[in-house]
Automatic annotation (TrEMBL), chain A:
This is ABC transporter permease. The chain crosses the membrane at residues 37-56, 80-100, 121-145, 165-186, 193-211, 252-270. It comes from the Bacteria. Keywords: Membrane, Transmembrane, Transmembrane helix.
From TrEMBL, chain B:
This is ABC transporter ATP-binding protein. InterPro entries: AAA+_ATPase, ABC_transporter-like_ATP-bd, ABC_transporter-like_CS, P-loop_NTPase. It holds the Pfam family ABC_tran. Belongs to the ABC transporter superfamily. Keywords: ATP-binding, Nucleotide-binding, Transport. SMART domains: AAA. GO terms for molecular function: ATP binding. Residues 2-227 form the ABC transporter domain.
Length: 276, 308
Protein backbone atom coordinates (compact mmCIF):
# COMPACT_ATOMS: atom_id res chain seq x y z
CA UNK A 1 0.00 0.00 0.00
CA UNK A 2 1.45 3.34 -0.92
CA UNK A 3 1.38 5.54 2.14
CA UNK A 4 1.38 8.82 0.25
CA UNK A 5 -1.93 8.10 -1.49
CA UNK A 6 -4.78 9.95 0.17
CA UNK A 7 -7.42 7.59 -1.14
CA UNK A 8 -6.91 4.19 0.47
CA UNK A 9 -8.79 2.33 -2.28
CA UNK A 10 -6.59 3.84 -4.94
CA UNK A 11 -3.52 2.93 -2.91
CA UNK A 12 -4.59 -0.70 -2.60
CA UNK A 13 -5.37 -0.88 -6.29
CA UNK A 14 -2.07 0.64 -7.28
CA UNK A 15 -0.11 -1.68 -5.04
CA UNK A 16 -1.59 -4.60 -7.00
CA UNK A 17 -1.01 -3.13 -10.45
CA UNK A 18 1.84 -5.02 -12.08
CA UNK A 19 4.03 -3.25 -14.61
CA UNK A 20 5.12 -4.84 -17.87
CA UNK A 21 8.46 -5.88 -16.39
CA UNK A 22 6.88 -7.90 -13.58
CA UNK A 23 4.43 -9.55 -15.99
CA UNK A 24 7.27 -10.47 -18.35
CA UNK A 25 9.23 -11.85 -15.42
CA UNK A 26 6.39 -14.15 -14.40
CA UNK A 27 5.94 -15.26 -18.00
CA UNK A 28 9.65 -16.15 -18.20
CA UNK A 29 9.38 -18.03 -14.91
CA UNK A 30 6.40 -20.07 -16.06
CA UNK A 31 7.83 -21.09 -19.40
CA UNK A 32 11.40 -21.71 -18.22
CA UNK A 33 10.62 -24.75 -16.05
CA UNK A 34 9.83 -28.21 -17.27
CA UNK A 35 7.00 -28.90 -14.78
CA UNK A 36 4.77 -26.45 -16.67
CA UNK A 37 5.08 -28.38 -19.90
CA UNK A 38 4.83 -31.73 -18.17
CA UNK A 39 1.60 -30.93 -16.36
CA UNK A 40 -0.01 -29.45 -19.47
CA UNK A 41 1.17 -32.35 -21.62
CA UNK A 42 -0.13 -34.86 -19.07
CA UNK A 43 -3.49 -33.10 -18.87
CA UNK A 44 -3.84 -33.00 -22.65
CA UNK A 45 -2.78 -36.57 -23.30
CA UNK A 46 -4.92 -38.19 -20.64
CA UNK A 47 -7.97 -36.03 -21.27
CA UNK A 48 -7.89 -36.50 -25.04
CA UNK A 49 -7.03 -40.19 -25.00
CA UNK A 50 -9.71 -41.08 -22.42
CA UNK A 51 -12.31 -38.98 -24.25
CA UNK A 52 -11.51 -40.68 -27.55
CA UNK A 53 -11.57 -44.14 -25.96
CA UNK A 54 -14.92 -43.51 -24.25
CA UNK A 55 -16.64 -42.07 -27.30
CA UNK A 56 -15.26 -44.67 -29.71
CA UNK A 57 -16.46 -47.48 -27.44
CA UNK A 58 -19.89 -45.79 -27.29
CA UNK A 59 -19.98 -45.75 -31.05
CA UNK A 60 -18.94 -49.37 -31.47
CA UNK A 61 -21.27 -50.69 -28.73
CA UNK A 62 -24.27 -48.62 -29.71
CA UNK A 63 -25.98 -51.45 -31.59
CA UNK A 64 -25.90 -53.76 -28.57
CA UNK A 65 -26.77 -51.19 -25.87
CA UNK A 66 -30.00 -51.56 -23.86
CA UNK A 67 -32.69 -48.97 -24.28
CA UNK A 68 -32.01 -47.72 -20.74
CA UNK A 69 -28.32 -47.22 -21.48
CA UNK A 70 -29.20 -45.41 -24.65
CA UNK A 71 -31.53 -43.10 -22.74
CA UNK A 72 -28.73 -42.21 -20.31
CA UNK A 73 -26.14 -41.76 -23.04
CA UNK A 74 -24.38 -38.40 -22.68
CA UNK A 75 -22.28 -37.57 -25.74
CA UNK A 76 -20.71 -34.56 -24.05
CA UNK A 77 -19.98 -36.27 -20.75
CA UNK A 78 -18.20 -39.11 -22.50
CA UNK A 79 -15.91 -36.84 -24.51
CA UNK A 80 -15.05 -34.97 -21.26
CA UNK A 81 -14.51 -38.13 -19.20
CA UNK A 82 -10.73 -37.54 -19.05
CA UNK A 83 -11.03 -33.97 -17.84
CA UNK A 84 -10.85 -35.19 -14.24
CA UNK A 85 -7.11 -35.71 -14.86
CA UNK A 86 -6.99 -32.35 -16.58
CA UNK A 87 -8.37 -30.75 -13.41
CA UNK A 88 -5.62 -32.32 -11.34
CA UNK A 89 -2.86 -31.31 -13.75
CA UNK A 90 -4.13 -27.74 -14.09
CA UNK A 91 -4.56 -27.44 -10.32
CA UNK A 92 -1.01 -28.68 -9.80
CA UNK A 93 0.21 -26.15 -12.37
CA UNK A 94 -1.44 -23.41 -10.30
CA UNK A 95 0.04 -24.71 -7.04
CA UNK A 96 3.56 -25.05 -8.42
CA UNK A 97 3.52 -21.58 -10.00
CA UNK A 98 3.83 -20.13 -6.51
CA UNK A 99 4.76 -22.89 -4.04
CA UNK A 100 8.07 -23.67 -5.74
CA UNK A 101 9.17 -20.08 -5.21
CA UNK A 102 8.73 -20.55 -1.49
CA UNK A 103 10.17 -24.07 -1.44
CA UNK A 104 13.35 -23.02 -3.25
CA UNK A 105 13.64 -19.63 -1.53
CA UNK A 106 13.48 -17.90 -4.91
CA UNK A 107 10.67 -15.77 -3.51
CA UNK A 108 13.22 -13.73 -1.53
CA UNK A 109 15.08 -12.85 -4.73
CA UNK A 110 11.75 -12.00 -6.34
CA UNK A 111 10.69 -9.74 -3.47
CA UNK A 112 14.15 -8.14 -3.36
CA UNK A 113 13.67 -7.21 -7.01
CA UNK A 114 10.03 -6.18 -6.57
CA UNK A 115 9.29 -5.22 -2.94
CA UNK A 116 5.67 -4.40 -3.80
CA UNK A 117 4.41 -7.92 -3.15
CA UNK A 118 0.90 -7.22 -4.36
CA UNK A 119 2.31 -6.54 -7.81
CA UNK A 120 4.23 -9.83 -7.85
CA UNK A 121 1.09 -11.68 -6.76
CA UNK A 122 -1.13 -9.96 -9.29
CA UNK A 123 1.36 -10.54 -12.11
CA UNK A 124 1.66 -14.21 -11.20
CA UNK A 125 -2.11 -14.64 -10.95
CA UNK A 126 -2.62 -12.86 -14.27
CA UNK A 127 -0.03 -14.93 -16.13
CA UNK A 128 -1.17 -18.24 -14.62
CA UNK A 129 -4.82 -17.26 -15.14
CA UNK A 130 -4.46 -16.31 -18.80
CA UNK A 131 -2.31 -19.36 -19.57
CA UNK A 132 -4.73 -21.76 -17.86
CA UNK A 133 -7.76 -20.14 -19.49
CA UNK A 134 -6.27 -20.35 -22.98
CA UNK A 135 -4.92 -23.89 -22.54
CA UNK A 136 -8.08 -25.00 -20.76
CA UNK A 137 -10.26 -23.79 -23.61
CA UNK A 138 -7.98 -25.44 -26.18
CA UNK A 139 -8.19 -28.66 -24.22
CA UNK A 140 -11.98 -28.75 -23.85
CA UNK A 141 -12.65 -27.74 -27.44
CA UNK A 142 -10.08 -30.27 -28.63
CA UNK A 143 -11.67 -33.01 -26.52
CA UNK A 144 -15.11 -31.97 -27.71
CA UNK A 145 -14.34 -32.05 -31.42
CA UNK A 146 -12.34 -35.28 -31.25
CA UNK A 147 -15.00 -37.02 -29.16
CA UNK A 148 -17.85 -35.91 -31.42
CA UNK A 149 -15.85 -37.01 -34.47
CA UNK A 150 -15.72 -40.52 -32.94
CA UNK A 151 -19.48 -40.48 -32.37
CA UNK A 152 -20.28 -39.14 -35.82
CA UNK A 153 -19.77 -42.58 -37.38
CA UNK A 154 -23.05 -43.60 -35.70
CA UNK A 155 -24.58 -40.11 -36.02
CA UNK A 156 -24.66 -39.78 -32.24
CA UNK A 157 -22.70 -36.53 -32.10
CA UNK A 158 -23.91 -33.17 -30.84
CA UNK A 159 -22.97 -29.79 -32.32
CA UNK A 160 -21.94 -26.52 -30.74
CA UNK A 161 -25.18 -25.02 -32.05
CA UNK A 162 -27.34 -27.56 -30.18
CA UNK A 163 -29.10 -26.25 -27.04
CA UNK A 164 -26.73 -25.82 -24.10
CA UNK A 165 -23.74 -27.43 -25.82
CA UNK A 166 -21.59 -24.34 -26.31
CA UNK A 167 -22.33 -23.23 -22.73
CA UNK A 168 -21.23 -26.61 -21.36
CA UNK A 169 -18.00 -26.68 -23.38
CA UNK A 170 -17.15 -23.13 -22.29
CA UNK A 171 -18.04 -23.99 -18.68
CA UNK A 172 -15.71 -27.00 -18.72
CA UNK A 173 -12.87 -24.69 -19.82
CA UNK A 174 -13.85 -22.12 -17.24
CA UNK A 175 -13.86 -24.81 -14.56
CA UNK A 176 -10.29 -25.78 -15.43
CA UNK A 177 -9.32 -22.12 -15.04
CA UNK A 178 -11.01 -21.83 -11.63
CA UNK A 179 -9.39 -25.05 -10.40
CA UNK A 180 -6.00 -23.69 -11.51
CA UNK A 181 -6.58 -20.47 -9.57
CA UNK A 182 -7.78 -22.36 -6.47
CA UNK A 183 -4.52 -24.32 -6.69
CA UNK A 184 -2.65 -21.05 -7.06
CA UNK A 185 -4.36 -19.60 -3.99
CA UNK A 186 -3.67 -22.77 -1.99
CA UNK A 187 -0.02 -22.65 -3.07
CA UNK A 188 0.23 -19.06 -1.81
CA UNK A 189 -1.56 -19.87 1.45
CA UNK A 190 0.35 -23.06 2.32
CA UNK A 191 3.67 -22.23 0.53
CA UNK A 192 4.24 -25.95 0.29
CA UNK A 193 3.71 -28.00 -2.89
CA UNK A 194 2.72 -31.34 -1.38
CA UNK A 195 0.45 -29.78 1.23
CA UNK A 196 -1.29 -27.55 -1.29
CA UNK A 197 -1.80 -30.39 -3.77
CA UNK A 198 -3.22 -32.59 -0.99
CA UNK A 199 -5.59 -29.79 0.02
CA UNK A 200 -6.63 -29.33 -3.60
CA UNK A 201 -7.37 -33.04 -4.06
CA UNK A 202 -9.36 -33.00 -0.82
CA UNK A 203 -11.39 -30.02 -2.00
CA UNK A 204 -12.03 -31.37 -5.48
CA UNK A 205 -12.93 -34.97 -4.70
CA UNK A 206 -12.46 -36.10 -1.11
CA UNK A 207 -14.94 -33.55 0.23
CA UNK A 208 -17.77 -35.48 -1.44
CA UNK A 209 -18.57 -37.72 1.58
CA UNK A 210 -18.63 -34.65 3.86
CA UNK A 211 -21.49 -33.30 1.78
CA UNK A 212 -23.25 -36.70 1.86
CA UNK A 213 -23.20 -37.07 5.65
CA UNK A 214 -24.72 -33.60 5.96
CA UNK A 215 -27.43 -34.33 3.40
CA UNK A 216 -30.04 -35.20 6.06
CA UNK A 217 -29.69 -31.66 7.46
CA UNK A 218 -29.38 -29.74 4.22
CA UNK A 219 -28.33 -30.30 0.65
CA UNK A 220 -26.59 -26.95 0.55
CA UNK A 221 -23.14 -28.22 1.67
CA UNK A 222 -23.25 -30.81 -1.11
CA UNK A 223 -24.40 -28.25 -3.62
CA UNK A 224 -21.49 -25.91 -3.06
CA UNK A 225 -18.87 -28.64 -3.37
CA UNK A 226 -16.69 -28.24 -6.45
CA UNK A 227 -17.48 -31.79 -7.53
CA UNK A 228 -21.21 -31.08 -7.73
CA UNK A 229 -20.70 -27.60 -9.17
CA UNK A 230 -18.69 -29.17 -11.99
CA UNK A 231 -21.46 -31.68 -12.50
CA UNK A 232 -24.08 -28.92 -12.70
CA UNK A 233 -22.31 -26.71 -15.21
CA UNK A 234 -21.28 -29.51 -17.58
CA UNK A 235 -24.71 -31.16 -17.94
CA UNK A 236 -26.91 -30.78 -20.98
CA UNK A 237 -29.89 -32.58 -19.43
CA UNK A 238 -31.14 -32.66 -15.86
CA UNK A 239 -30.05 -35.37 -13.44
CA UNK A 240 -32.65 -37.72 -11.96
CA UNK A 241 -33.13 -39.49 -8.64
CA UNK A 242 -31.43 -38.75 -5.34
CA UNK A 243 -28.10 -37.46 -6.77
CA UNK A 244 -30.06 -34.67 -8.47
CA UNK A 245 -30.75 -33.14 -5.05
CA UNK A 246 -27.01 -32.58 -4.52
CA UNK A 247 -26.57 -30.77 -7.79
CA UNK A 248 -26.90 -26.99 -7.51
CA UNK A 249 -28.90 -24.79 -9.84
CA UNK A 250 -26.86 -23.08 -12.54
CA UNK A 251 -27.15 -19.73 -10.74
CA UNK A 252 -25.85 -21.21 -7.48
CA UNK A 253 -23.15 -23.15 -9.34
CA UNK A 254 -21.71 -20.17 -11.21
CA UNK A 255 -21.90 -17.83 -8.23
CA UNK A 256 -20.25 -20.43 -5.93
CA UNK A 257 -17.50 -20.85 -8.50
CA UNK A 258 -16.94 -17.09 -8.55
CA UNK A 259 -16.89 -17.09 -4.75
CA UNK A 260 -14.25 -19.86 -4.68
CA UNK A 261 -12.13 -17.86 -7.08
CA UNK A 262 -12.37 -14.64 -5.08
CA UNK A 263 -11.90 -16.25 -1.65
CA UNK A 264 -8.81 -18.27 -2.56
CA UNK A 265 -7.16 -15.45 -4.49
CA UNK A 266 -7.84 -13.06 -1.60
CA UNK A 267 -6.50 -15.46 1.04
CA UNK A 268 -3.39 -15.97 -1.05
CA UNK A 269 -2.94 -12.21 -1.41
CA UNK A 270 -3.24 -11.74 2.32
CA UNK A 271 -0.74 -14.51 3.01
CA UNK A 272 1.84 -13.22 0.54
CA UNK A 273 2.01 -9.92 2.39
CA UNK A 274 3.39 -11.75 5.44
CA UNK A 275 7.14 -12.24 6.05
CA UNK A 276 8.74 -14.36 3.35
CA UNK B 1 25.13 3.67 2.82
CA UNK B 2 23.04 1.31 4.94
CA UNK B 3 21.53 2.54 8.21
CA UNK B 4 19.94 0.45 10.92
CA UNK B 5 18.13 2.37 13.67
CA UNK B 6 17.07 0.73 16.93
CA UNK B 7 16.03 -2.38 15.04
CA UNK B 8 14.11 -5.01 16.99
CA UNK B 9 12.67 -8.16 15.45
CA UNK B 10 10.71 -10.55 17.61
CA UNK B 11 9.59 -14.03 16.59
CA UNK B 12 7.02 -14.89 19.23
CA UNK B 13 8.83 -14.72 22.58
CA UNK B 14 12.29 -14.78 20.96
CA UNK B 15 14.07 -11.53 20.19
CA UNK B 16 16.14 -12.28 17.10
CA UNK B 17 17.38 -8.68 16.91
CA UNK B 18 17.42 -6.38 19.90
CA UNK B 19 17.63 -2.57 19.47
CA UNK B 20 20.41 -2.84 16.93
CA UNK B 21 21.88 0.36 15.45
CA UNK B 22 24.74 0.84 13.02
CA UNK B 23 25.67 2.45 9.73
CA UNK B 24 27.62 0.91 6.85
CA UNK B 25 29.77 3.34 4.88
CA UNK B 26 30.76 3.13 1.21
CA UNK B 27 34.26 2.47 -0.08
CA UNK B 28 35.14 -0.34 2.31
CA UNK B 29 34.22 -3.92 3.08
CA UNK B 30 32.27 -4.12 6.31
CA UNK B 31 32.17 -7.51 7.95
CA UNK B 32 29.08 -8.55 9.88
CA UNK B 33 30.12 -11.04 12.54
CA UNK B 34 28.30 -13.12 15.06
CA UNK B 35 27.77 -16.73 16.03
CA UNK B 36 25.07 -18.76 14.30
CA UNK B 37 21.69 -17.47 15.40
CA UNK B 38 23.04 -14.05 16.40
CA UNK B 39 20.54 -12.30 14.11
CA UNK B 40 22.74 -11.53 11.09
CA UNK B 41 20.41 -12.97 8.47
CA UNK B 42 17.34 -11.47 10.11
CA UNK B 43 18.99 -8.04 10.05
CA UNK B 44 19.90 -8.45 6.38
CA UNK B 45 16.41 -9.64 5.47
CA UNK B 46 14.96 -6.63 7.24
CA UNK B 47 17.25 -4.26 5.34
CA UNK B 48 15.91 -5.83 2.13
CA UNK B 49 12.30 -5.37 3.23
CA UNK B 50 11.72 -9.13 3.38
CA UNK B 51 10.99 -9.14 7.11
CA UNK B 52 8.97 -6.42 8.80
CA UNK B 53 10.68 -5.06 11.93
CA UNK B 54 8.85 -5.29 15.25
CA UNK B 55 10.19 -1.79 15.91
CA UNK B 56 12.92 0.46 14.57
CA UNK B 57 13.78 0.90 10.91
CA UNK B 58 16.37 0.26 8.26
CA UNK B 59 17.33 2.61 5.41
CA UNK B 60 19.36 2.24 2.24
CA UNK B 61 20.65 5.50 0.79
CA UNK B 62 18.27 7.28 3.16
CA UNK B 63 15.04 5.53 2.13
CA UNK B 64 13.17 2.38 3.16
CA UNK B 65 13.92 -0.50 0.79
CA UNK B 66 10.25 -1.21 0.05
CA UNK B 67 9.76 2.30 -1.35
CA UNK B 68 12.52 1.97 -3.96
CA UNK B 69 11.14 1.74 -7.47
CA UNK B 70 13.88 -0.38 -9.11
CA UNK B 71 15.77 -1.74 -6.11
CA UNK B 72 18.16 -4.00 -8.01
CA UNK B 73 19.80 -0.83 -9.32
CA UNK B 74 20.41 0.35 -5.74
CA UNK B 75 21.11 -2.78 -3.69
CA UNK B 76 22.42 -6.11 -4.91
CA UNK B 77 22.12 -9.00 -2.51
CA UNK B 78 23.01 -12.63 -2.06
CA UNK B 79 21.08 -14.15 0.83
CA UNK B 80 21.06 -17.84 0.03
CA UNK B 81 22.81 -19.31 -2.98
CA UNK B 82 20.56 -22.36 -2.85
CA UNK B 83 17.47 -20.22 -3.32
CA UNK B 84 17.09 -20.95 -7.03
CA UNK B 85 14.57 -23.10 -8.89
CA UNK B 86 16.68 -26.09 -9.87
CA UNK B 87 14.76 -26.64 -13.06
CA UNK B 88 15.56 -23.22 -14.46
CA UNK B 89 18.68 -22.33 -16.44
CA UNK B 90 21.12 -19.78 -15.05
CA UNK B 91 20.24 -17.40 -17.88
CA UNK B 92 16.48 -17.69 -17.34
CA UNK B 93 16.95 -17.17 -13.61
CA UNK B 94 18.85 -13.94 -14.26
CA UNK B 95 16.46 -12.82 -17.01
CA UNK B 96 13.32 -13.16 -14.94
CA UNK B 97 14.90 -10.93 -12.30
CA UNK B 98 16.43 -8.46 -14.76
CA UNK B 99 13.17 -7.66 -16.53
CA UNK B 100 11.44 -6.69 -13.26
CA UNK B 101 13.81 -3.73 -12.95
CA UNK B 102 13.87 -2.91 -16.67
CA UNK B 103 17.53 -3.91 -16.85
CA UNK B 104 18.77 -4.52 -20.40
CA UNK B 105 19.35 -8.12 -21.50
CA UNK B 106 23.01 -7.23 -22.03
CA UNK B 107 23.44 -7.05 -18.24
CA UNK B 108 22.58 -10.75 -18.00
CA UNK B 109 25.38 -11.69 -20.40
CA UNK B 110 27.73 -9.32 -18.63
CA UNK B 111 27.25 -10.71 -15.11
CA UNK B 112 27.41 -14.29 -16.43
CA UNK B 113 30.79 -13.42 -17.89
CA UNK B 114 31.90 -11.57 -14.77
CA UNK B 115 31.13 -14.60 -12.60
CA UNK B 116 32.58 -17.10 -15.05
CA UNK B 117 29.25 -18.78 -15.77
CA UNK B 118 28.93 -18.00 -19.50
CA UNK B 119 29.76 -21.60 -20.41
CA UNK B 120 26.94 -23.05 -18.31
CA UNK B 121 24.37 -20.26 -18.82
CA UNK B 122 21.87 -22.56 -20.54
CA UNK B 123 22.36 -25.47 -18.14
CA UNK B 124 19.75 -26.12 -15.50
CA UNK B 125 20.82 -24.96 -12.06
CA UNK B 126 19.99 -28.36 -10.52
CA UNK B 127 23.31 -29.68 -11.81
CA UNK B 128 25.36 -26.80 -10.44
CA UNK B 129 27.96 -27.31 -7.72
CA UNK B 130 27.71 -25.21 -4.58
CA UNK B 131 30.47 -22.96 -5.89
CA UNK B 132 28.62 -22.39 -9.16
CA UNK B 133 25.44 -21.56 -7.25
CA UNK B 134 27.33 -19.03 -5.16
CA UNK B 135 28.61 -17.47 -8.39
CA UNK B 136 25.07 -17.37 -9.75
CA UNK B 137 23.88 -15.71 -6.53
CA UNK B 138 26.62 -13.13 -6.90
CA UNK B 139 25.66 -12.64 -10.54
CA UNK B 140 22.15 -11.75 -9.31
CA UNK B 141 23.62 -9.26 -6.84
CA UNK B 142 25.68 -7.60 -9.59
CA UNK B 143 22.80 -7.55 -12.10
CA UNK B 144 21.74 -3.95 -11.53
CA UNK B 145 25.33 -2.66 -11.16
CA UNK B 146 24.29 -1.37 -7.71
CA UNK B 147 26.24 0.99 -5.43
CA UNK B 148 25.36 -1.17 -2.40
CA UNK B 149 26.07 -4.88 -2.09
CA UNK B 150 25.07 -7.31 0.63
CA UNK B 151 26.28 -10.88 0.91
CA UNK B 152 25.10 -13.33 3.57
CA UNK B 153 27.76 -15.99 4.26
CA UNK B 154 29.11 -15.91 0.69
CA UNK B 155 32.04 -18.28 1.28
CA UNK B 156 30.00 -21.06 2.90
CA UNK B 157 30.94 -24.37 1.36
CA UNK B 158 33.31 -22.93 -1.20
CA UNK B 159 36.64 -24.42 -2.21
CA UNK B 160 39.82 -22.36 -1.62
CA UNK B 161 39.81 -21.06 -5.18
CA UNK B 162 36.23 -19.85 -4.85
CA UNK B 163 36.99 -18.21 -1.50
CA UNK B 164 39.89 -16.26 -2.98
CA UNK B 165 37.69 -15.23 -5.93
CA UNK B 166 34.94 -13.87 -3.68
CA UNK B 167 37.44 -12.15 -1.40
CA UNK B 168 39.05 -10.33 -4.33
CA UNK B 169 35.66 -9.49 -5.81
CA UNK B 170 34.46 -7.87 -2.58
CA UNK B 171 37.66 -5.88 -2.23
CA UNK B 172 37.48 -4.63 -5.82
CA UNK B 173 33.80 -3.68 -5.41
CA UNK B 174 34.70 -1.65 -2.32
CA UNK B 175 37.66 -0.09 -4.14
CA UNK B 176 35.21 1.17 -6.78
CA UNK B 177 33.54 3.14 -4.01
CA UNK B 178 30.62 0.79 -3.39
CA UNK B 179 29.20 -0.14 -0.02
CA UNK B 180 30.00 -3.79 0.66
CA UNK B 181 28.34 -5.48 3.63
CA UNK B 182 29.21 -9.12 4.16
CA UNK B 183 28.19 -11.45 6.95
CA UNK B 184 30.15 -14.42 8.16
CA UNK B 185 30.67 -16.58 11.18
CA UNK B 186 34.20 -17.35 9.96
CA UNK B 187 36.45 -14.84 11.71
CA UNK B 188 39.59 -15.87 9.87
CA UNK B 189 37.87 -15.10 6.58
CA UNK B 190 36.79 -11.65 7.76
CA UNK B 191 40.31 -10.89 8.96
CA UNK B 192 41.48 -11.16 5.36
CA UNK B 193 38.60 -9.28 3.74
CA UNK B 194 36.98 -6.69 5.94
CA UNK B 195 38.15 -3.16 6.77
CA UNK B 196 35.47 -2.53 9.33
CA UNK B 197 33.54 -4.82 11.64
CA UNK B 198 30.06 -4.99 13.09
CA UNK B 199 29.91 -7.71 15.74
CA UNK B 200 26.61 -8.86 17.18
CA UNK B 201 25.67 -11.51 19.71
CA UNK B 202 22.10 -12.63 20.40
CA UNK B 203 20.76 -9.80 18.32
CA UNK B 204 22.57 -6.98 20.13
CA UNK B 205 25.54 -4.91 19.04
CA UNK B 206 28.84 -5.93 20.64
CA UNK B 207 31.31 -3.94 18.57
CA UNK B 208 31.32 -1.45 15.70
CA UNK B 209 34.95 -0.79 14.96
CA UNK B 210 37.83 -0.83 12.50
CA UNK B 211 39.50 -4.18 12.02
CA UNK B 212 42.88 -3.07 13.44
CA UNK B 213 41.31 -1.43 16.50
CA UNK B 214 39.26 -4.52 17.14
CA UNK B 215 42.30 -6.78 17.40
CA UNK B 216 44.36 -4.14 19.23
CA UNK B 217 41.78 -3.53 21.92
CA UNK B 218 41.55 -7.16 22.83
CA UNK B 219 43.04 -7.99 26.25
CA UNK B 220 44.50 -11.10 24.75
CA UNK B 221 47.59 -9.14 23.68
CA UNK B 222 50.36 -10.28 26.01
CA UNK B 223 53.93 -11.55 26.15
CA UNK B 224 54.80 -15.16 26.79
CA UNK B 225 57.93 -15.72 28.90
CA UNK B 226 59.47 -19.11 29.56
CA UNK B 227 62.17 -19.33 32.23
CA UNK B 228 63.45 -21.90 34.79
CA UNK B 229 63.08 -19.22 37.53
CA UNK B 230 59.50 -18.34 36.80
CA UNK B 231 58.47 -17.44 40.37
CA UNK B 232 61.45 -15.09 40.82
CA UNK B 233 60.93 -13.37 37.45
CA UNK B 234 57.19 -13.08 38.09
CA UNK B 235 57.90 -11.17 41.32
CA UNK B 236 60.40 -8.89 39.56
CA UNK B 237 57.95 -8.10 36.72
CA UNK B 238 55.05 -7.51 39.12
CA UNK B 239 57.26 -5.04 40.98
CA UNK B 240 57.71 -3.19 37.65
CA UNK B 241 53.92 -2.87 37.35
CA UNK B 242 53.14 -5.81 35.06
CA UNK B 243 50.31 -8.27 35.48
CA UNK B 244 51.62 -11.79 35.43
CA UNK B 245 49.60 -14.95 35.08
CA UNK B 246 51.19 -18.36 35.37
CA UNK B 247 50.28 -20.43 32.35
CA UNK B 248 49.47 -24.09 33.03
CA UNK B 249 52.54 -25.27 31.09
CA UNK B 250 54.90 -23.31 33.39
CA UNK B 251 55.24 -20.23 31.18
CA UNK B 252 54.28 -16.71 32.22
CA UNK B 253 51.68 -14.60 30.44
CA UNK B 254 52.72 -10.97 30.98
CA UNK B 255 50.68 -7.89 30.21
CA UNK B 256 51.63 -4.26 30.86
CA UNK B 257 55.28 -4.48 29.79
CA UNK B 258 56.90 -4.64 26.36
CA UNK B 259 59.19 -7.48 25.32
CA UNK B 260 62.14 -5.05 25.55
CA UNK B 261 61.30 -4.09 29.13
CA UNK B 262 60.89 -7.71 30.19
CA UNK B 263 64.19 -8.61 28.58
CA UNK B 264 65.94 -5.77 30.43
CA UNK B 265 64.48 -6.87 33.79
CA UNK B 266 65.59 -10.44 33.19
CA UNK B 267 69.10 -9.46 32.06
CA UNK B 268 69.62 -7.01 34.96
CA UNK B 269 68.75 -9.74 37.46
CA UNK B 270 70.61 -12.56 35.77
CA UNK B 271 67.48 -14.56 34.96
CA UNK B 272 67.86 -17.07 32.19
CA UNK B 273 65.11 -16.80 29.54
CA UNK B 274 64.30 -19.65 27.11
CA UNK B 275 61.51 -17.97 25.26
CA UNK B 276 60.18 -14.45 24.98
CA UNK B 277 57.33 -13.94 22.53
CA UNK B 278 54.77 -11.24 21.89
CA UNK B 279 51.36 -12.77 21.35
CA UNK B 280 48.70 -10.92 19.45
CA UNK B 281 45.15 -12.17 19.53
CA UNK B 282 43.84 -13.36 16.23
CA UNK B 283 40.52 -11.92 15.22
CA UNK B 284 39.06 -15.29 16.01
CA UNK B 285 40.25 -15.19 19.61
CA UNK B 286 39.21 -11.59 20.08
CA UNK B 287 35.80 -12.44 18.75
CA UNK B 288 35.41 -15.55 20.89
CA UNK B 289 36.29 -13.52 23.97
CA UNK B 290 33.78 -10.82 23.10
CA UNK B 291 30.86 -13.08 22.31
CA UNK B 292 31.72 -15.34 25.23
CA UNK B 293 31.40 -12.50 27.75
CA UNK B 294 28.17 -11.36 26.19
CA UNK B 295 26.72 -14.84 26.49
CA UNK B 296 27.81 -15.21 30.14
CA UNK B 297 26.49 -11.78 30.91
CA UNK B 298 23.12 -12.72 29.52
CA UNK B 299 23.02 -16.00 31.36
CA UNK B 300 23.27 -14.25 34.72
CA UNK B 301 21.06 -11.28 33.86
CA UNK B 302 18.56 -11.96 31.13
CA UNK B 303 16.84 -8.65 31.73
CA UNK B 304 19.72 -6.52 30.46
CA UNK B 305 20.96 -7.57 27.07
CA UNK B 306 24.25 -6.99 25.38
CA UNK B 307 27.15 -4.67 25.97
CA UNK B 308 26.98 -1.40 24.22
Amino acid sequence: MTAQSSLPQRGVLRSFLPGRGVLRSEWIKLRSVRSTYLSVLFATLVAVVLGVLATSSDASNWATMTAQDKAQFDPLGDSFIGLIFGELAFGVLGVLAISTEYRTGMIRATFSAVPQRGRVYAAKALVVGVVSLVLGMLLVFGSFFLGQAMLSSKHLEVHLGDPGVLRVVLSAGLYLFVVTMIGFGLGAILRHSAGAIAALVAMLWLAYPIGRVLDHLSYLPSRILLFNIADAITRTHAATGKPALRIPSLELAYSSLALYLVVFLALGAWRISRDA
Amino acid sequence: MIEVHELTKRYGPVKAVDRLSFAIRPGQVTGFLGPNGAGKSTTMRTILGLDTPTSGRTLVNGVAYRTIDKPLRVVGSLLDAGAVHGGRSARSHLECLAVTNDLPRSRVGKVLEQTGLSGVARKRVRGFSLGMRQRLGIAVALLGDPPILMFDEPVNGLDPEGIVWIRNLMKSLAAEGRTVFVSSHLMSEMALTADHLIVIGRGALIADTGMADFIQSSSLNDVLVRTPQSRYLADLLTAKGAQVIAAPDGGLAVTGLTTEAISQVAAANGVEVYELARRQASLEEAYMKLTDTSVQYRATDPGKRGRR
